[in-house]
Amino acid sequence: MVDFGTAELTLEMIQASQVGLKAVGAGLAVGLTGIGTGVAEMGIGAAAVGATAENKDMFGLALLFTVIPETIVIFGLVVALLLLF
Amino acid sequence: MAEISSGSAQYIYVCTRMRVRRSQLIPREDYLRMLNMSLPEITRFIEDTGYKSEIDELATAFSGIDLVEVALSWNLAKEYQSILAITPGELMRFTASYLRRWDIQNVLTILRGKTQGMPAGKIREVLIPAGALDRVFLDRMLAEDSPERVVEALKGMRLYPVLEREFPRALETGSFARLENELYKGYYERLLAETKGGVKGGRVFKGYVQLEIDIRNIQNLFRLRAQPTLEDVREMMIPGGSFTVDELQRLSTAESRDEFIDGVKKQVTLPPLLNVLEDLRSERPIHEVEIALTRVQLEQMDRVSKRYPFSITPILVYLEQKKYEVANLRALARGKEAGLPGERIRSYLVM
């Protein structure tokens, strides 16, 4: 066991915790944007299914509108990748 | 969280479907074009819109005006039933309550037909099974041999207490008017009570029902002015709107049309309705008055539905607009059949 109260932080320890926090940040970036995308797609998806049920021609356009909030999660992914590499 | 979000998704789904369906209703220009067509042309025209399957299905059994009439009723019933099938939970309860008026209409049609000794097949043609009583139940009622038995068959239903109370009197006097008034009063009372349940959209729904009651009362007052009656006015008025029954009765005794309209205007706050009332100061035929008021009602409902895009209102607006589309087509077809000039028919259309 290391006694954190008295032990001196070595350079290796600091570097290791930085890598760890970066990984947590990357995880949060993808996870939270994923939730945001989900919430945004909920309404659009419901409307898209409704419109497609009435009019089959709407399918392509409806699908396009539904995936537009995907950009949010892609931003999150980009940020995560920037953090990690 | 899960419940809230899935709830709003359901609203969005249904309201979008209603919006798409509304955009497929017959537009004003098409009505104007239809005014210049003959009956077979109109039949073909509506076959190209949303009524194809009904017209195809019924074409072997009916022809001419009957074909149009029956196809319209069938389509309306099918449309309403399909809406009930796609609306979930709370919305479905409201919608079903709103559609209960068709039950009243169907029950009264059957009772009237039975007392006049019409054959069951003939009565069935004019039924519109759009409410809680479905085709099977209505058929069972039609199979009963006397009006009393028909009333008995409804035992346990919401309509039964009023029917039981008023029906003997209706038979005695030979007039169903009072029974009909009572049934509709019960219907509106029930509808208003349901809005108080504290559910989402209840407040909007209540405003909507009250507007309908107000318009109906004002229409009735105009009708009474056109054709004074000796009966008690109180019994004909629907309570629950922004007028009390006493106020309505006072209005019905107004001497001149101006005085009457001023009285109504004091209570009404809706700007479009005020404008129309101002317009109605000059003497107009009663059907024009009614159509002007109906149009205000539809426009106002449309406006409310835009303010609350994901609530019960878009559904109700569609139900109403569909009802008037069918009424318009029926008026057109009947008018053409009777050889009325286009201008005359036009004044009966709500568009």
TrEMBL record, chain A:
Domain V-ATPase proteolipid subunit C-like: 24-83
Transmembrane segments: 59-84
Membrane topology (UniProt): Multi-pass membrane protein
Signal sequence region: none
Keyword Transmembrane helix: yes
CDD domains: ATP-synt_Vo_Ao_c_TtATPase_like (cd18181)
Alphabetic keyword roster: Membrane, Transmembrane, Transmembrane helix
Pfam assignment, any one: ATP-synt_C
Family membership noted in the UniProt record: Belongs to the ATPase C chain family.
Protein's name according to its UniProt entry: ATPase
UniProtKB/TrEMBL annotation, chain B:
Intracellular or extracellular location(s): Cell membrane
Membrane topology value: Peripheral membrane protein
InterPro entries in UniProt: ATPase_csu/dsu_sf (IPR036079), ATPase_V0-cplx_csu (IPR014272), ATPase_V0-cplx_csu/dsu (IPR002843), V-ATPase_V0D/AC39_subunit (IPR050873), V-type_ATPase_csu/dsu (IPR035067), V-type_ATPase_csu/dsu_dom_3 (IPR044911)
Pfam families in UniProt: vATP-synt_AC39 (PF01992)
Main location: membrane
Record keywords, A-Z: ATP synthesis, Cell membrane, Hydrogen ion transport, Ion transport, Membrane, Transport
SUPFAM superfamilies registered for this protein in UniProt: V-type ATP synthase subunit C
Sequence similarity: Belongs to the V-ATPase V0D/AC39 subunit family.
Function: Component of the A-type ATP synthase that produces ATP from ADP in the presence of a proton gradient across the membrane.
HAMAP family referenced in this protein's UniProt entry, alphabetically: ATP_synth_C_arch
Record text on subunit structure and interactions: Has multiple subunits with at least A(3), B(3), C, D, E, F, H, I and proteolipid K(x).
Protein name: A-type ATP synthase subunit C
Organism for this UniProt entry: Methanoculleus frigidifontis
Gene name for this UniProt entry: ahaC
